[in-house]
Amino acid sequence: MSLTRVSRSDSLELHEGVDNAAFQEDGGRADSEKTDGQVAADCPSSSLNLDGAESSYTQIKPYAGMSKEVLLLYSRQARYRLPREILFWLVIVSTLVLLAVNITVIALSPRCLSWWQSSPVYQIYPRSFKDSNNDGIGDLKGIQDKLDHLNYLNIKAIWISPFYKSPMRDFGYDVEDFRDIDPIFGTMKDFDDLLVSMHDKGLRLIMDFIPNHSSDNHVWFQNSRRREEPYTDYYVWANCTRDKLPNNWVSVFGNSSWTYDSVREQCYLHQFLKEQPDLNFRNPDVRREMTDIIRFWLDKGVDGFRMDAVKHILEAPHLRDEPQVNASQPPEQVNTEFELHHDYTYTQVGLHDILRGWRAELDTYSREPGRYRFMVTESYDYEEIDKTMMYYSTDFARESDFPFNFYLMDLPQGLSGARAQELVGNHDKPRMSSSVGKEYISAINMMMLTLPGTPTTYYGEEIGMENVHIHIEDIQDPFGKFDPNASRDPQRSPMQWSSEPNAGFSGNGTGTWLPIHPNYTTVNVEAQKGNDSSVLEQYRRLSLLRESEMALHRGWMCFVWSDVDVFVYLREQDGLDRAFLVLINLGRNATTDLSSISGLPEHFRVHTSTVPKNQGRSYDRAAVPTKKGEGLLLEFSSNQRFHTSHASSCYISERACYLNVLDIMYKC
Length: 668
Ligand code: NOJ
Description:
The protein is of the alpha/beta class. Among the domains are: about 210-280 and about 315-350, Oligo-1,6-glucosidase, domain 2 (Alpha-Beta Complex); about 555-665, Sandwich (Immunoglobulin-like), CATH 2.60.40.1180. Strand 12 (about 375), helix 12 and strand 13 form a beta-alpha-beta unit. Helix 10 packs parallel to helix 11 (about 350-365) and helix 14 (about 440-450) packs parallel to helix 17. The protein is globular, with a radius of gyration of 37 Å. The two termini are about 70 Å apart. Residues about 1-50 and about 410-415 have low confidence and may be disordered. The chain binds 1-deoxynojirimycin. 1-deoxynojirimycin (NOJ) binds near residues 170, 272, 308, 427 and 428. InterPro entries: Alpha_amylase, GH, GH13_cat_dom, Glyco_hydro_b, O16G_dom_2.
């Protein structure tokens, strides 16, 4: 059979009984080599219109080099068309199914934990972490030298207290230049190098940002005192005389928060030291300046900010006296923070708008994949937990990722998606080993690492460092100079790296900026590393466990029991049978009877204990023994979830279920 093009009509003719020329082995030329005339001569008769060809010529075979029209002819035949259409619809249907599955998986997937949620945040007080140039004071290069220690602890985020250029009246919280590094700590190049090293090692950098005040050495303040524009209103000024201050407001560090300035012949406000004048956030230029500073560091690549003392940012413009806590106290004797109700100086209307503005700025830098920029706010609201909760973002307004939780136990209630935070020490508070007792430090670390929020560890807590004793005449902290009992020096002593001189912190032969704690020969990183029962190794194990156990890093937290000695809570994850019961003993040796609590199994196995010999033991729920200061992580298996029957004592930040068969998480 062969085919012939009929030039006149553009239709094709098939000639039955003639072999397909393309398949002939006679060495004859293929159709393509023949002229139209020759082809016509080879195939003179029996022409057929293509419309009828499909039905009549089902036996024909395709051949190489067939023209489009021929191809179409074959392709219309049912034996080709049918499979083709089936394949076509299969592809369409499977694409749609895949798309639907993808959309469903995305819609049902819970948010992944971000870097600031998935590991502890570690606070470094840079003066005290590691001295690289042997001047007795820690510095940025020193931090860089010690990054492996943070990797060892499975830390992913570091908050470094201020290293801006500063006269150091409040050890860096008095900033002279918000865009420069203090020479004590190094250079801008040291900062850039540190940041690169941190990112290379998978560590994020959170900077301290101090918006409420600057140093009185700052050029803005110097210009403001001289009423040089545009700086005249950069600070909070009020008319006064040396003897008659504007009102009764007092500083956090004690005495009046007003100081008379002889150059401007007015008083300026300072809610901390007189060397820390309060910036005037009612001035749009100041707000712009501070936002530009945030951008400056974000452009450099920092991963987030700890916003210092935010509740102080705004004051009431009317400057009225604040009410005394004790109305009968003679007003001239009122000179400390806790003797006034701070109705006009703390948490003023407009504060949260400012913070939300900064959050928006951070968010514009968070769009790069994997570069979420984080914000934590510091506000001591004491008993007013509602005020602390205001810093959390809502569905409508994004603000802080979390405020520091100085309450520890007051977990957020009723705020879906909000992330709790646990903090048990910082540069302003006595060390845990000293305030609670060193026998409790491992249990406290266990509590912090097994509660649901992001744990924050102050340098040295991972080895159980204690407050150092400082003679009254050697006090360096300005707050301590006002009230020695309030001195923050004891918790700022140099990090104890080893039993070498100066605890391996510094090679300075003439000492360190604050004394080293005498226990450094035994309480140090080197001595504890590799010793399974040390505070350091227990910290590390729990930090790793927190990351690997879903129940610990994103599961339910249920309050189970507490008495004067023991605090008991449970961690579980929907979809997982394995759960943990945690007993933190902050009192004396105790035996806890949990048999009255429904939903608990009869027996538990000790997964981790801060008392190593208890490791692997099994306990009956009617009698769970804990030693004084023991932290006990018990594991058990149950197909019943505890939170379903104890809803009022359970909390979860963002609910998600684990699906074992597919090894995926979904919103539930
Ligand atoms: C809070 C800081 O934590 C503290 O150390 C500092 O003295 C004050 N803010 C003033 O900046």
